[in-house]
Amino acid sequence: MFFSGQYEHKLDSQGRVSIPVRFRDAFKAGIILTQGFEQCIFVYTLKEWENMASKVSQMPFTQAKFRKMMRLTFWQAFQLDMDRQGRVPLPGSLREYSNVDEEIVIAGTGLFLEIWNKDSWAEQSSLLSEAAWQIAENTEVRD
């Protein structure tokens, strides 16, 4: 599954978010929520999480930078299931980290989704738009 687009949603009174309908089949085997970067929440399919986690786990733990990356990857990771309505609870520690409150944005990033506080996403998307040409110019695309 390739995740794209952006979707505005609201958390319900129990702290659950609805996964966009078009992506729900990808998460039937399970969903992994973890702390992302820039105060967002990463949302992985179980298969993509296992691929990524395997790569991180193979890093040499004897080097401090790799131990830190392992901690960042796993210490706030939660394996959850969607309910019948496609909702998943957002753990309190992830809501606190991301400042997610009632209004959120779910953004596709290709291999995974990101959940953002609506205001934080507005700032982030504005920064991305302003720097798009610089980002593109400085990114190496591999075959």
Task: Quickly describe the structure.
By secondary structure, the protein is α+β, with helices and mostly antiparallel strands. It has helices spanning 46-57, 64-74, 92-98, 118-137; strands spanning 6-10, 16-18, 31-35, 41-45, 78-80, 87-89, 103-108, 113-117. A hairpin with a 4-residue loop joins strand 7 (103-108) and strand 8 (113-117).
The whole-angstrom Rg is 16 Å
Unreliable parts? none
Strand arrangement in the largest pleated sheet: 1-7-8-4-3-5
What's the overall geometry? globular
C-alpha end-to-end distance: 20 Å
Number of domains: 1
Largest sheet: 6 strands, antiparallel
The assigned CATH architecture is: 3-Layer(aba) Sandwich
Number of strands: 8
CATH uppermost class? Alpha Beta
Output the CATH topology. Answer: Chemotaxis protein chec
Q: What is the number of helical segments per DSSP (H or I, 4+ residues)? A: 4
List descriptors.
143 residues, alpha+beta, Chemotaxis protein chec, two-stranded antiparallel sheet, 4 helices, 8 strands, 35% helix, globular
Question: Helix and strand layout, with pairings?
Answer:
Layout: E1 6-10, E2 16-18, E3 31-35, E4 41-45, H1 46-57, H2 64-74, E5 78-80, E6 87-89, H3 92-98, E7 103-108, E8 113-117, H4 118-137
Antiparallel strand pairs: 1-7, 2-6, 3-4, 3-5, 4-8, 7-8
